[in-house]
Amino acid sequence: MALVPSYIQSLANYVPGKPIEEVQRELGMDHVDKLASNENPLGPSPKAVEAMAKSLSELHRYPDVFGFELKTKLANRFNIKIDNVILGGGSEGIMSTIMRTFLLSDDEMVSAANSFIGFRVLANASGRKIHWVPMKNHHYDLQAMADKVNDYTKIIYIANPDNPMGTYITREEFDEFYTHIPERVLIILDEAYFEFAQHNADYPDSMTYRYDNVITLRTFSKAYGLAGLRIGYGFAHDELIGNLNKVKEPFSPSLIALTAGSAALDDELFLQKTLEINYTGYTFFKNELTTAADLNETSLEQALVDLADMIDERGLKVAVKATKMLIPSELVFVAERLLQSQLRTGTADNDINAVRSSGMVPGGYVVNHYLTDSDAWFLKTDAPNGLKVFERSPLKTSMEGDFDTGNMRYKARERYSFGWSDPRGIFGSPGA
Question: How far apart are CA 239 and CA 212, in angstroms?
């Protein structure tokens, strides 16, 4: 009998965004702005910091295992009973509890192939069968997910808005999807970015209507700036919550996390500032990228060059999730992959030059770039229609070593060519 189950042996370690200190050591930089983990640029809630400082003298005490104060505040804010609330070590902590509580040996799960990596790690570690459904135009393909539901389906996971795609499913889409789901199937709605999406009229805030088999997950990590404390919360039918509480780790979250979460909920000024700075950033990218990629007056090749010039000039090494409706999805897709590749490998050498050297071929466009195998895999499996990855060249960069991402390992950065056809000429005539 094997000591370690085969489904655990086949897993790779989770690879987070590099810590700022590590990047500073590697690149000799004094100042680094970390973008890879979606951390709050304003830091933590000041009221949370003040409350934590006052509670330090109580660290010899175990926390309230029930979390009464924080649960009460959450229940009052969202007009539910305290028995409908669960707390955990971030939303992932509650996800883990859900799986341990409800999954039987032959149960199955359904989710999107390229959604939140935290759920993927937990799901794969469960040893159960998971149906990973490809996304459609960077959105959850809810119809395809519903088609995967069978007699063994126990859990469906949807991140809304999604991380990393930044897209969300609408109320109408979710309501239609729900009509195809049996009541015995649990739907996890991970709303970690709820605060940033709630202003959209068609966003399905799950707390404005309740289904008995829906578990809502939220977090203090993003809007309240408490990612380092690992504190999240969930809402569900009291019967579900009661069973989850039997299984969850005792004394989690910690005393400091409970104190900070309770205080952060009262920090409306900080929350408002967070939402304002996020919207300001969104507006900046919207205006700048709309200008850079005005494809009514320029070719795709020139738009790529303009985009590279803007990124190079302003030092904006980020993915352009917020602009998918403003410029062609193919352009956004390529720009995202180039920049995400740079962020993951911690390099800043060829990304801009690679965009500048992009060329047009008869009937379409081609880009030559040093990509990781992981990025090439994404280009193959989640690309816009017509985008194809060509054979890699034997050339390699001077950078060597192995990297982990999700469930795959790859050698760092071999050269690929990739491109897409443009039979309708929507980006202008090649060579124009």
Answer: 9
Express each pLDDT in 364-387 by its tens digit.
Answer: 444 444 444 444 544 454 444 444
Q: Which residue has the tokens 């578990």?
A: 215
* Strand-by-strand arrangement of the 364-371 sheet: 359-361, 364-371, 414-421, 387-389
User: Cα angle at 401 between 378 and 374, to 5 degrees?
Assistant: 5
Distance CA 342, CA 352 (A): 10
pLDDT digits (tens, 9 = 90+) for 105-143: 999 999 999 889 899 999 999 999 999 999 998 899 999
Q: What 8-state DSSP symbol labels residue 19?
A: P
All CATH 3.40.640.10 domain ranges of the chain, comma separated, are 46-268
Find residue 139's DSSP bridge partners.
136
Give the burial string for 36-72 (b: 16+ CB within 10 Å, else e): bebbbeeebbebbbebbeebeeeeeeebeeebeebbe
For the ranges 6-20, 206-220, 340-354, the maximum mean pLDDT occurs at 206-220
* Number of separate helices (H) and strands (E) present in the chain: 16, 13
Which pair of structure tokens corresponds to residue 188?
A: 């996890």
CB 168 within 8 A of CB 201: no
- Write down the pTM of the prediction: 0.69
46-268 maps to CATH 3.40.640.10: yes
